[in-house]
């Protein structure tokens, strides 16, 4: 399942996460600010451009590599995973459908750390029901006039560009009228909403983006008109493995905390790790994490070797989304009162876990995808 | 090696810097005397430098029966090339059986170079030296694996048997004005071109404030200090030992010191050589951050405080009375060390 | 400029614990790592490569076959070439025999302007191999290097002392041993790892290097291990008795006696 380069990458990512990210995890969560120095170090290690092809300034790496790094980072700080988003959510639309100029500009920008990207499909009226988007892009000569609002956009407050999905043909049935565009934040009419006050991953900034008659040059149409929905689904499909690894990382991190705490906490004259309930809890969590691990990396391996992976990716995301919440809950329970205090990392991990079963396709959507593979369309 | 029986006597490399003998030399003379006695041979010192003849008398007073003196303007400052040539040539000429060096920055630069030149064995950073009662060979014990393992090393077939010896471990020899000894001037075959490095400048300085994780000595304060002022006193104690100040969570929460100094579960984990826990009760969360320290000294009014379970030395008492006494004791100790 | 870095793969002795029952070292689960001082040595070489044109860095290690993992990490950090000197014949070498082997390998590898080596390895803790290699190669040495500058063929370094430092000038070729204060070693990066996995690490055995077989391995080593043992476990602590003054005095003499101070 893994080659030498994956072993080395895991060692690097783990060392980096422990030494560089972990000391700041609490501060990042509490202030919502991401230290510039740390963001720079992540770029120096090239964690931000693992999967971006070399010809656009990236490392040309595979899905397993990205999953490994995502897992190790999430293990100490789930918010930090946004720093490597170009590998998946913000990079995939361009990697899969961008033309040469678009890739050289935007992919390279993200690989070199000079640009921050974002991905905008969700709207106030369109979450799981992606086809219900109402943002419009009306063709006018060499431009498309963009009007609408996207919400819950990760990196929204700080992005330099965003790949969005809008209706270019409002008369078309279903999803065939949707097109994808790369929209730059400096363009007139582009504005950002207030930064959301979230339950978890508070170190990752989120806001609404509003488009008021934004003139998008036709060169910034991504793919072909009407291809938007396909681009969106392809991106989410491919990103599933990354989010699953984030969930896996959170589960592993929460589990690590439980092991550490139960060895130290003494009650009834001995460490609580000697109590059978603790042992059974740890054994059960460890087993489920191992299942999650195999799901994630098997899906990644399938993708890397050109095999169909869509169902396995959905399974991994579904399983990990639920698992990280379960493990975080149980680990916090093992911490007792201490787990309820912000001084203990598990408190943050518990809150961070909550998003994994929701974003980039809820667990319910994942089940729809899986059932679709089983039963056929 | 041909006839190792030709090698006789115990030599001590009498390291000097700017005409001051490095303190470890007196420890080597103390240990060397014992070894010379057990091997039935003479204790000699090897002194290299410029204008250092007067130091020879000190070495004799501390027990050297012979002092080999190698003087030259070229040897004013330590250089590897200069000192290694002089001492290697002398080893080849006089054939000492044993040569001891202090494991100082100089000793650890010089000794291996010499060992490679005269092709003999060298054991680094020895903490114990013994003479085997039967074969009279030197058994050299030293720490390895970061101190987790001790190894006893022998050099059966090569001479001289050489060791660098950890400073501050062996017993210093006792100065005796009555001691007699001879000074032998060593013929030098040293020219300027032999020395390839140039010492431009020697700079002495006091070490800057060290971080908690790097500190070798930490003086930590807790609720038992009673007030913020207490930390000034702890800083004074830390300064006498070149250490850093730490704190328990209780002291940080009370606003007596910044939380950067906090040691413990939700603070910093430390592993110093010496940890003073002053007025700290020893809650598990604090112990989690410091129980791996090499040596723990606890001071607390409460004899039942859990900190005493992990302390190597426990003092039951008011920290505000005990710490000033410790400051005095360590200051005095430092003065004695400098004068020695 | 050609730079050679001597590196060793070591167990992470900071993580090694002693079995309280058997009194032996617990080595399982202890990671093998690039010796920390050697990471500083490599980093300084990489800094020179960052700054100047036409710098080639070769990393060389004497070790068992699995040391190639460590060498690959050095390549991933930015070294150009890696050589592993490995053979059963080298087994059991003390520092003298090791330095004979490594210096022969270095002669085989080419001519170098600077050889960087870490001051000491965290398993052997001797700090002897660097200076002994310098002697065998006939090179000047400076140990405990905490600061480094180069100007043409002249190197200016700060040599760390216990209470300060010396500023020393020396012309290349030279061997320098490095301490942790010299620099902060960089991390590998993802691209570096991918490239390193494509590179071949040369492996040299005893017949590949110009070494006298009588001067290598356990048999030729002048020093031998008589025995090894784990240090006595920490006993229970002592509660000092008497008046406060007496307690303090007892503390001071105890500390002196145990060589803690």
Quick synopsis:
The complex is a heterotrimer of chains A (377), B (340) and C (261). With 377 residues, chain A is α+β, with helices and mostly antiparallel strands.
CATH architecture tag of the largest domain in chain A: Up-down Bundle
The succession of helices and strands of chain A, N to C, reads HHHHHHEEEEEEEEHEEHHHH
Number of strands of chain C: 15
**Beta-strand percent range of chain A:** 5-15%
Largest sheet of chain A: 4 strands, mixed
The first-level CATH class of chain C is given as Alpha Beta
CATH-defined fold name of chain C: Rossmann fold
Largest interface (C-beta under 8 Å): B-C, 77 and 75 residues
Number of strands of chain A: 10
- Helix content range of chain C: 25-40%
Structural class assignment of chain C: alpha/beta
The assigned structural class of chain A equals alpha+beta
Total domains of chain A, how many? 3
Q: Structurally, how many domains make up the residues of chain C? A: 1
Describe this structure in words.
The complex is a heterotrimer of chains A (377), B (340) and C (261). Chain A has helices at residues 4-21, 25-31, 36-44, 63-76, 92-97, 100-111, 228-264, 276-304, 310-335, 345-353, 363-375; strands at residues 117-120, 136-140, 143-154, 161-167, 178-184, 190-192, 206-217, 221-222, 266-267, 270-271. Chain A is α+β, with helices and mostly antiparallel strands and 377 residues long. In chain A, helix 4 (63-76) packs across helix 7. The two termini of chain B are 40 Å apart. In chain B, helix 5 packs parallel to helix 8 (319-339). With 340 residues, chain B is α/β, with parallel strands linked by helices. Chain B folds into two domains: 4-194, HUPs (Rossmann fold), CATH 3.40.50; 217-339, Rossmann fold (3-Layer(aba) Sandwich). In chain B, the strands form four sheets. Chain B has a seven-stranded parallel sheet, with helices on both faces. In chain B, 51% of the residues are buried. The longest helix of chain B is centred in the C-terminal third of the chain and has 21 residues, at 319-339. In chain C, a hairpin with a 2-residue loop joins strand 9 (141-151) and strand 10. In chain C, helix 2 (68-77) packs across helix 5 (190-198) and helix 3 (95-109) crosses helix 4. The longest helix of chain C is centred in the first third of the chain and has 16 residues, at 36-51. Chain C is α/β, with parallel strands linked by helices. Chains in contact: A-B, A-C, B-C. Chains B and C meet through helix 3, helix 4, strand 7, strand 9 and strand 10 of B and strand 3, helix 3, helix 4, strand 9 and strand 10 of C.
């Amino acid at each position: 399942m893994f080659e030498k380069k994956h072993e080395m990458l895991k060692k690097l990512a783990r060392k980096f996460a422990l030494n560089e990210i972990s000391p700041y995890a609490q501060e990042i969560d509490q202030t919502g600010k991401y230290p510039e120095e740390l963001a720079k170090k992540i770029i120096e290690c090239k964690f931000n451009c693992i999967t971006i092809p070399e010809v656009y300034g990236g490392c040309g790496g595979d899905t397993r590599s990205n999953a490994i790094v995502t897992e190790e980072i999430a293990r100490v700080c789930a918010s930090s995973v946004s720093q490597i988003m170009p590998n998946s959510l913000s990079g995939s639309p361009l990697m899969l459908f961008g033309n040469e100029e678009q890739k050289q500009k935007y992919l390279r920008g993200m690989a070199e750390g000079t640009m921050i990207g974002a991905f905008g499909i969700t709207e106030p009226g369109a979450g799981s029901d992606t086809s219900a988007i109402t943002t419009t892009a009306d063709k006018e000569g060499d431009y498309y006039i963009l009007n609408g609002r996207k919400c819950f956009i990760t990196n929204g407050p700080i992005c330099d560009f965003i790949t969005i999905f809008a209706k270019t043909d409002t008369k078309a049935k279903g999803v065939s009228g949707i097109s994808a565009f790369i929209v730059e934040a400096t363009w007139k009419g582009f504005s950002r909403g207030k930064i959301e006050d979230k339950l978890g991953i508070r170190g990752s900034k989120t806001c609404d983006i509003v488009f008021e008659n934004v003139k998008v040059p036709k060169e910034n149409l991504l793919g072909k008109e009407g291809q938007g929905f396909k681009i969106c689904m392809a991106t989410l499909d491919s990103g599933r493995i990354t989010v699953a690894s984030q969930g896996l990382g959170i589960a592993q991190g929460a589990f690590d905390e439980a092991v550490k705490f139960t060895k130290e906490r003494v009650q009834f004259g001995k460490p609580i790790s000697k109590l059978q309930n603790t042992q059974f809890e740890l054994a059960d969590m460890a087993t489920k994490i191992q299942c999650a691990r195999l799901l994630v990396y098997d899906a990644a391996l399938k993708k890397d070797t050109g095999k169909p992976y869509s169902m396995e990716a959905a399974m991994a995301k579904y399983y990990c989304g639920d698992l990280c919440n379960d493990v975080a809950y149980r680990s916090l329970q093992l911490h007792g009162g201490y787990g309820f205090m912000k001084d203990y990392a598990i408190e943050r991990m518990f809150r961070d876990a909550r998003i994994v079963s929701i974003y980039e396709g809820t667990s319910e959507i994942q089940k729809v995808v899986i059932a679709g593979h089983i039963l056929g369309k | 090696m041909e006839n190792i029986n030709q090698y006789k006597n115990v030599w001590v490399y009498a390291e000097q810097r700017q005409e001051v003998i490095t303190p470890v030399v007196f420890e080597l003379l103390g240990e060397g005397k014992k070894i010379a006695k057990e091997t039935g041979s003479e204790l000699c010192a090897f002194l290299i430098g410029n204008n250092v003849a007067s130091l020879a008398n000190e070495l004799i007073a501390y027990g050297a029966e012979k002092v080999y003196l190698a003087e030259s303007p070229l040897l004013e400052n330590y250089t590897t090339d200069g000192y290694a040539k002089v001492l290697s040539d002398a080893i080849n000429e006089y054939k000492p059986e044993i040569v001891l060096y202090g494991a100082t920055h100089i000793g650890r630069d010089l000794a291996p170079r010499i060992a490679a030149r005269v092709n003999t064995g060298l054991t680094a950073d020895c903490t114990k030296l013994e003479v085997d009662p039967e074969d009279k060979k030197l058994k050299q014990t030293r720490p390895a694996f970061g101190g987790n393992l001790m190894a006893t090393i022998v050099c059966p077939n090569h001479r001289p048997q050489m060791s660098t010896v950890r400073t501050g471990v062996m017993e210093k020899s006792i100065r005796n004005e009555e001691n007699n000894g001879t000074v032998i001037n060593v013929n030098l075959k040293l020219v300027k071109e032999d020395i390839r490095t140039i010492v431009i400048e020697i700079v002495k300085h006091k070490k800057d404030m060290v971080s908690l994780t790097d500190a070798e000595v930490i003086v930590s304060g807790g609720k038992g200090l009673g007030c913020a002022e207490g930390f000034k006193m702890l800083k004074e104690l830390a300064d006498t030992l070149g250490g850093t100040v730490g704190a328990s969570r209780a002291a940080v929460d009370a606003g007596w010191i910044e939380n950067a100094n906090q040691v413990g579960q939700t603070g910093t984990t430390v592993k110093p050589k010496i940890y003073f826990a002053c007025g700290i009760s020893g809650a598990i969360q604090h112990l989690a951050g410091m129980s791996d320290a090499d040596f723990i000294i606890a001071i607390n009014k409460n004899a039942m405080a859990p900190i005493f379970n992990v302390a190597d030395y426990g003092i039951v008492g008011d920290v505000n009375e005990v710490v000033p006494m410790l400051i005095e004791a360590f200051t005095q100790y430092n003065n004695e060390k400098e004068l020695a | 400029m050609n730079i050679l870095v001597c590196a060793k793969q070591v167990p992470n002795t900071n993580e090694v614990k002693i079995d309280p029952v058997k009194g032996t070292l617990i080595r399982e689960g202890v990671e093998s790592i690039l010796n920390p001082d050697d990471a500083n040595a490599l980093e300084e070489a990489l800094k020179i490569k960052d700054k100047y044109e036409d710098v080639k860095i070769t990393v060389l290690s004497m070790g068992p076959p699995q040391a190639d993992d460590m060498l690959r990490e050095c390549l991933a950090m930015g070294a150009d070439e890696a050589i592993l000197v490995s053979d059963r014949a080298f087994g059991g070498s003390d520092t003298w025999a090791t330095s004979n082997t490594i210096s022969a390998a270095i002669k085989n590898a080419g001519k170098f302007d600077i050889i960087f080596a870490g001051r000491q390895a965290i398993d052997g803790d001797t700090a002897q191999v660097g200076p002994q290699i310098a002697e065998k190669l006939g090179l000047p040495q400076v140990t405990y290097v905490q600061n480094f500058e180069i100007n043409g063929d002249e190197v200016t370094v700060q040599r760390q002392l216990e209470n300060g430092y010396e500023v020393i000038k020396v012309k290349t070729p030279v061997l320098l041993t490095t301490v942790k204060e010299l620099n902060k070693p960089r991390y590998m990066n993802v691209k570096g790892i991918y490239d390193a996995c494509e590179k071949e690490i040369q492996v040299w055995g005893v017949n590949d290097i110009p070494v006298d077989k009588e001067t290598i391995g356990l048999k030729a080593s002048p020093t031998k291990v008589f025995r090894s043992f784990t240090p006595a476990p920490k006993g229970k602590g002592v509660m000092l008795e008497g008046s406060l003054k007496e307690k303090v005095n007892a503390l001071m003499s105890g500390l002196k006696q145990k060589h803690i101070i």
